[in-house]
Write a structure and sequence with these properties.
Radius of gyration: 19 Å
Shape: globular
Helix content: 40-55%
Strand content: 15-25%
Structural class: alpha+beta
């Protein structure tokens, strides 16, 4: 069984990949284990999925949220059905949802995984569908295509969080230390790569920081920092013409070789391949 996580998501046959979110109009072949947040938006017809041995039928104008750790074993759709799939890294969800605990979020989505899109939400969702279609199927090599995709990612994630907040208790906040850690990492834009440095800046021990981060988002501080570094690296590779050695230096790598090893270990492809994909 294949697994899609925050590293292998880059290798999925997506149409748009921006380092934080992958968008496509088709699902990967099943069965597979999903270790990232997965959103299926049914645009037309019916879509039937078997997730963790539970059968879920998705109708037009419904969104299905598949929580990390789920196993997707079967997908059936009508001939005329249309849908859009998005996969979001956990770090991106945590980065943009400082007001809510992921534990409550995941519990709510497991209980009510399907959300109906109605009224103003339906109008907004339709606009995103049309915009995503344009971005996904635009094969022209335009100079700002990746920047447009990046902004679409940000907007799309926040709109998803708008829908999610109706299903969780807004009074359940993350620990102040974890919130400070997320803000610090976000401000550094991928250049903060040491847990010890983060702990020193936050005036706590690295052991205490590791425990709090793990309790809050179920990944280690190093995993969180590595993902933000990867997001920033992908952006610089695709949106600038900086030499690899300069990008490596921007993120504290001693040389281009160490930089390339880091990227290949996490994403399975080389920095040069990422740069070519964005052109």
């Amino acid at each position: 069984m294949k697994t899609i996580d925050e590293t292998t998501m880059a290798l999925w046959g997506h149409d748009v990949w921006e380092g934080r979110l992958a968008i496509s109009d088709s699902l990967p072949s099943v069965p597979l284990k999903l270790m990232v947040g997965t959103i299926v938006l049914c645009r037309k017809g019916h879509l039937t999925l078997v997730i963790d041995n539970n059968t879920i039928m998705l109708e037009s104008n419904q969104i299905l949220f598949i929580t990390p750790g789920s196993i997707l074993s079967q997908v059936e759709l009508e001939d005329e059905s249309k849908y859009m799939v998005s996969m979001i890294t956990r770090t991106e969800i945590f980065r943009t949802s400082l007001h809510h605990r992921p534990i409550e979020l995941i519990q709510a989505l497991r209980t009510n995984p399907v959300i109906n899109i109605e009224g103003a939400d339906g109008v907004i969702a339709d606009a995103y569908q049309r915009l995503a279609d344009l971005v996904i199927h635009d094969r022209r090599k335009r100079p700002y295509h990746q920047q447009v995709a990046s902004l679409l990612v940000d907007s799309f994630v926040y709109e998803l969080l708008n829908l999610l907040t109706a299903h969780i208790n807004p009074s359940n906040n993350w620990s102040p230390l974890f919130q400070r850690f997320v803000v610090l990492a976000d401000v550094r834009k991928g250049s903060l790569r040491s847990v010890n440095e983060a702990a020193q800046l936050l005036c706590v021990s690295s052991k205490h920081l590791a425990r709090v981060v793990k309790e809050s988002c179920d990944i280690s501080p190093l995993e969180y920092l590595d993902m933000l570094t990867l997001h920033a690296i992908v952006a610089q590779l695709r949106q600038t013409d900086l030499p690899l050695k300069d990008i490596a230096a921007n993120f504290g790598f001693p040389n281009a070789s160490a930089f390339g090893t880091f990227v290949r270990r996490h994403l399975g492809i080389t920095p040069i391949t990422i740069r070519k994909q964005g052109r």
